[in-house]
Description:
Elements: H1 8-15, E1 21-28, E2 43-57, E3 60-65, E4 68-72, E5 78-93, E6 106-109, H2 112-121, H3 132-145, E7 153-156, H4 161-172, H5 180-187, H6 191-202, H7 206-223, H8 228-234, H9 240-245
Antiparallel strand pairs: 1-5, 2-3, 2-4, 2-5, 3-7, 4-6
Helix pairs in contact: 2-3, 5-6
Amino acid sequence: xxxxxxxVEALRRxxxxxxxxxxxxxxxHGAEDWAPKHRHARGQLFALTRGLLVVEAGSExxxxxxxxxxxIPPECEHAARSAGGSAGSMVYLSAEACRGLAKKPxxxxxxxxxxxxVHRALTWNLSQALNPAQKRLIxxxxxxxxQPEQQPLRLPIPREERLxxxxxxxxDDVADDRTLDEWGHYAGMARRTFMRAFSAEVxxxxxxxxxxxxxxxxxxxxxxxxxVTETAIAVGYDxxxxxxxx
Length: 246
């Protein structure tokens, strides 16, 4: 079974090689900071068997629980972090093998078949060309990646520079209780302009987006073993009952 190379340069060389499929196991033992945002010419499949990952890809942030899979298409900028430890596998498909697959990041339910193929791919010799049986398995894996998308806990990130500044300020401190007027001023906009612009960018009112951001932070803290009371206070609620009603 292959584990992710600790040497970043070795991983880069493998990713840039003409090997059609690369599969690695990974394990994280605790909460981690964001891995640097990056992109690559290969499509990437996350198959998570334990724990919780937070993935930011395109203009969205996902909460990615175990027994789920995430697909990151080629050249899509993305980053991830572990919340409280995680384990699973990553499969990198060549650009040729990604033809016909989704061009946007997506999350979907895992299956025993998919995990079985991924587990088999972990044993393949990377120095040898795929044999006919392995090629058939990759064809089935591609079919599994095409299955209907699940709706994950998803947080859209605005693209407009002033709104991005607001979103990142709140994500850094979800307990920040500034009013709409104050957030509009922070963005350099009138209150109504700010409300309309933010809603248009993320597809929901600012208040609902802020609540979703708090929910994201709360799930991460609970996954790290924090108590409900500690989590409720940290994400901006005065009481556990108010937090539970969220």
